[in-house]
Amino acid sequence: MKRILTIAIALCSVPLSIFAQNNEPICTVANTSFRAGESITLNIYYNVIGLYVNAGTANFKTTAEILEGKTVYHVVGTGWSNSKYDWIFKVRDRYESYFDAKDMLPYKFVRNVNEGKYKKSQVAYFYHNDEKVETESSKTFKINKCTQDVISALYNVRSLDFNSYKTGDKIPFDMYLDEEVYHMYIRYLGKEKITTQYGTFNAIKFKPLLLKGTVFKGGEKMTAWVSDDANHIPLRIESPLSVGSIKVDMMSYSGLRYPLSSLIEKD
Known about the structure:
Elements: H1 4-13, E1 39-47, E2 52-67, E3 70-81, E4 92-100, E5 106-115, E6 118-127, E7 132-135, E8 140-142, E9 148-149, H2 150-157, E10 170-177, E11 180-195, E12 199-208, E13 223-227, E14 234-240, E15 245-254, E16 263-266
Helix pairs in contact: 1-2
Organism: Rhizosphaericola mali
InterPro entries: DUF3108
Signal peptide: 1-20
């Protein structure tokens, strides 16, 4: 149950691509999928002995604000362990992204991690014209002009036209997290029906490349599905972990920009 929000956000935001199929960066992604006032909640299930346990919850809320004279979307991702298991390992995490309302590029990223005895707070500022990120501690990291943070990544991917890709296509992307820039890709796998804890949906399917670490196994081990409608909200993510496996299901939503027309039947 450790690092619940970190895992959930990674699972939900891995499918970012703001690159065309010729690998040329597209730095002016227009929002076509969400609006201020949207809220999405997901349940996180952990499996270590053949039985999935409800280990925690993640929520993403979107508002419109003004940051240094610019109109931005402010997305707050919060995650917490199931209260039944707080005595084993208590998690209360919060991630925030401020990204431009027009081109969807991030200006500011905030990460506050509170997991058992481990606590970490980070703030990063993006300067895309200068191709750099600066932290509150004055560290500087080189990026390309299209680099996203882990939250803005999720909201960029939701405005992609998946119909422009062929099954099997690799789509590369760059993402900044925890003072590193990761060069990754997703493999588009087409469309299919999927049944989740919430209901049965028409969905878009893909596999992201994962870097091997202490939590995830490397390679194309994870599978993710988003709604096959104009909202493109995350529906389910499944992945093996170094110990056990994890499943994340969308369980509730409000304030969607469009009707959730991909829903075939609600459980």
